[in-house]
Amino acid sequence: MLTKLEIQNYILIDHLSIDLSNQLSVITGETGAGKSIIMGALGLILGDRADSNVCRDDAKKCFIEGVFQLANKNQYTAFFTEHEIDLSDELIIRREISAQGKSRAFINDTPITLNVLKELTSKLVDLHQQFDTLTLGDTDFQRTVMDALANVQKELTSYQAVYTEWKENEKKLQQLLIERENFEKTESYKKHLLDELAELNLKENELEQLEQELKFLENAASIKTQLAQSLQLLDTSDNPIVQQLKQLGNSLESIVKYQPEFSSLLERLKAAQIELADIASDLTSWQDKIDFDDKKTESIQERLSLGYNLQKKHKVQSTSELLVIQEQLEQDLTAVLNLNDTIDQLTKKVKDNAAKAAELAISLSNKREKEKTPLTTAVNKLLHQVGMPNAKIKVTIDEVPFNYYGKDKIDILFDANNTNKFEPIKKVASGGELSRLMLCIKSLVAKSVDLPTMIFDEIDTGISGEPAKQVGLLLQNLGQARQVLCITHQPQIAAKGNAHLYVYKEQKGSTTHTYLKTLNKSERILHIAQMIGGDPPSKSALDNAKELLAS
Predict the structure, then answer these.
(1) Which DSSP letter does residue 236 get?
(2) Range in 86-95, 124-133, 366-375, 539-548 with the lowest mean pLDDT
(3) d(Cα 492, Cα 470) in Å, to the nearest integer?
């Protein structure tokens, strides 16, 4: 329940502090006095976006604060926990707007986004503004009314969970089918590429090693000649290097006995001799291994040619890159097998989802169907009460393709003159009829949806006299169970308020200011009389005002 609304530096308002009744509060005032300004300020703490020019004084920021009392704060625990906001019996919502248009929102001094603010206030306040009657003709609104009265939230939530999973799985399945179709277009070519690589059966760095081996084989004659020349110098000539080193060693050995320091030189010389002898032996082995094998050369050339062709085809430069491509092709071809399995599993899921959704939709439809007669009877009774004895509604439910809300298209049709020719509301209802019909429907919904506060901005558009009185009585009854705020121009409705707030404006110098005051009993009599008969009110208008207040 909204207990207090404070407004500072907002359009024509310097400062207003409004204490509100917990039942029906009526707000009246001349056209242009500022009632819409107050509603605009209220809209800001409910999550509306702020204009950049709302600050009356550009030197200060605009400040709007609403204080709510939570009768059952436990139902808000999950919301406050999720958004890390302190929860207490008193809830303070604040909006601050700078002259530059920068806006900030707070819940219990915790900064929050407008989306979070709207999420919370939608649970606290139902705000019906002047043109909201147009939503009566919307299928979504009519379905929402039916669902609230039929109490199908549990069934609807279950259905929507299954429906959402169904559609998500359908989307995944379609994507996989497209993926498989695209793959199948290239599958044979990929298999051909893989067969080529698998047939060649390359090993890591094989082509690079074959290149080196081929160069060796192609230069075998020259290599063998060079080895022979080296061996001759080292070991097979008339005076080979190894033999010369041996002779040099003998010479040094003969003088070691005269100078011991020569022994280290002798050891180094012997080591060199042994090393060169080993080199000569290895060269001999290489010389024996080198063979002019034309078949082997041809085989290597052929394998390299195949490898080079594959490198060119795949636009790579190395064996390792070809092996990566081969592995990827293997994975792709294996993936299509897994893809088929996944498609089969997902197809089954989609089928199961569809069957479950159909089952839940039937349950949802049955509860809606059962509510048709009670809704029709209750609204028609209220229409008679608010001065429309010949008006009736009729509810139709037609089957449509499955959607997020089931398989029902719900239409509330209207007949204003008892002709039994029911038409869509927006085609046949006048402004006054729409207002009263909306009030009748909302008064019913209010019993099913626990909204602590309901606000009506000029719900009395297009009515007067006895119908206005009946609307007042309906609002008064609503106010017995919850807080109701109503902006009205009708004295019959104004007289039904438990509290009466009067909005007026005054000119001070060159500026206009909006003010609000709570009227006492005598002030209410005078003001309602003025609403009836003008200013100054006649005695009959005053008597009429007293009668309205007493009734």
Answers:
(1) I
(2) 124-133
(3) 8
